[in-house]
């Protein structure tokens, strides 16, 4: 059966992995949390591009059928570099600006992202393309994704950050929030409590999964035909969790996986270092 590689700087991409596993439970999933290099939000474009190439080599060695870059920051600044050096299908994460602008009742939309994503030309072009008559505000947090990786000891900081962001959004009468970092849906319930029922919250896992299915169908038509026609009879796939840092964080990563029975193992992996890849600690 096909094996899919999913990467992020930490636990955030598990929101994407969970959705993929729910849609296609027969697929084997290999998750790489690049915690040694986290947070991505304070790295340069050159550092992130170099790092993503190293992760791509890892997945090629693991013989995956496709790579899912389950990180908004890595997608906006480095996914083109990865696509240029691999023949594998590479699926990225696109902030859900289009559906947000379509459903917003008051035409007041907020996009919450890491600083790198917030400043990216890719995000701003996406907003210009789909905003129409909506007012779109970009908000960013330099700490929220990193704090989510430190859950649960960081819960009080997360609640405080979300409260401050929510107060700003309420003051701007925002009625639709785009979570433009895959970490953020892990604490979606805290956003819902802070913003109330009048604000719709959109996250990207469904769209990424649909795109993955389209790319797999194109690249592996025979295998996907079997999956779509025999899905109920196929055995469940396995989920393996990897970290570039150490195995001490594995209990936190495991806790975010919705199908605990599918986890087949955990391991630490070493990514080859490239020029300009030194992390800021």
TrEMBL record:
Residues forming coiled coils: none
Superkingdom of origin organism: Bacteria
Binding site for substrate: 8-9, 40-41, 72-73, 182-183
Enzyme class: isomerase
Protein keywords: Cell shape, Cell wall biogenesis/degradation, Isomerase, Peptidoglycan synthesis
Matches recorded under Gene3D superfamilies: 3.40.50.1860
UniProt record, GO biological process: cell wall organization; peptidoglycan biosynthetic process; regulation of cell shape
Biochemical pathway: Cell wall biogenesis; peptidoglycan biosynthesis
The EC number(s) this enzyme carries: 5.1.1.3
Gene Ontology terms, MF aspect: glutamate racemase activity
Catalytic activity: L-glutamate = D-glutamate
Active site (catalytic residues): 71, 181
UniProt xrefs under PROSITE patterns: ASP_GLU_RACEMASE_1, ASP_GLU_RACEMASE_2
Family membership noted in the UniProt record: Belongs to the aspartate/glutamate racemases family.
Summary of the function given for this chain in its UniProt record: Provides the (R)-glutamate required for cell wall biosynthesis.
Protein name (Swiss-Prot/TrEMBL): Glutamate racemase
Species name: Marinomonas algarum
Lineage: Bacteria, Pseudomonadati, Pseudomonadota, Gammaproteobacteria, Oceanospirillales
